[in-house]
Design brief:
144 residues, mainly alpha, two-stranded antiparallel ribbon, 7 helices, 2 strands, 67% helix
């Protein structure tokens, strides 16, 4: 029987999600909130971050992003303020509590990446990373 690629990707995704969620529990957060905090903390300090940036980065719908960011704001991890040039947009800023745990988040995510990549040879690593960047774009373009 030939293995389904989408099934194998789903299995790996589930394992990574489980690991991130387990890590996030110590902060009473979800894995997705941890990953969004990491994204926000590593975003260019010279640029504003908006909800649409989070939606695009994580390939999530507006309603999903709204709920996640609302929960993060209630936990004082982020603050959303109205953008002076367009009142429909909210600037997302990481609060002190969200910045305070970034070092631990970065270490965990780096260790997770290392575990994944160390299971591959050097050539496989390059191909794997290249493929991971290429596949979502190709699938998205074909769906349109």
């Amino acid at each position: 029987m030939e293995e389904s690629i989408s099934h194998l990707i789903k299995v790996l995704s589930n394992q990574i999600s489980r690991d991130i969620n387990t890590f996030a529990l110590q902060f009473k957060l979800t894995g997705t909130q941890i990953q969004i905090l990491d994204f926000l903390n590593n975003y260019s300090a010279n640029e504003h971050v908006f909800q649409k940036d989070v939606e695009k980065e994580f390939n999530i719908r507006r309603s999903t992003a709204t709920n996640i960011l609302k929960n993060m704001e209630e936990k004082n991890l982020i603050k959303r303020t109205t953008y002076s040039r367009d009142s429909r947009l909210k600037i997302i800023e990481v609060q002190k509590s969200g910045k305070d745990i970034q070092k631990e988040i970065s270490k965990f995510l780096s260790d997770t990446d290392s575990k994944i990549l160390n299971s591959l040879g050097a050539f496989e690593r390059r191909s794997f990373i290249k493929s991971l960047r290429k596949i979502p774009e190709k699938i998205s373009n074909e769906a349109k």
